[in-house]
Amino acid sequence: MTRPDQLVEMVPATLDTRKRWVRVTGERAGGFIEFDFAIGEPELIVEMILSPEAFAEFCAQNQVELLPPREPDSGADEPSDWDWRLADATQTRFKQ
């Protein structure tokens, strides 16, 4: 491993882990709620599914801020390779 000529100054990211967000993305059979959950940055999410009771408790315990539903992309005819969700995998045929 070689050393760079100049050292790069490492600056820690400002990530406030006290801030938490939820965006409801759908509902499944039995009333289960699909949602995105983020800590510190609303763009970095995990997809989750909970019963309505568990969802309400989860939101209360995490003191989340509810985000509005995502706007559908209207600019591109084809979604990019990065524009997908794990929940979409059940309806997608992957290239082989």
From TrEMBL:
The region called Disordered is annotated at 68-96
InterPro entries, alphabetized: DmpK
Name it. Phenol hydroxylase P0 protein
Organism equals Pseudomonas linyingensis
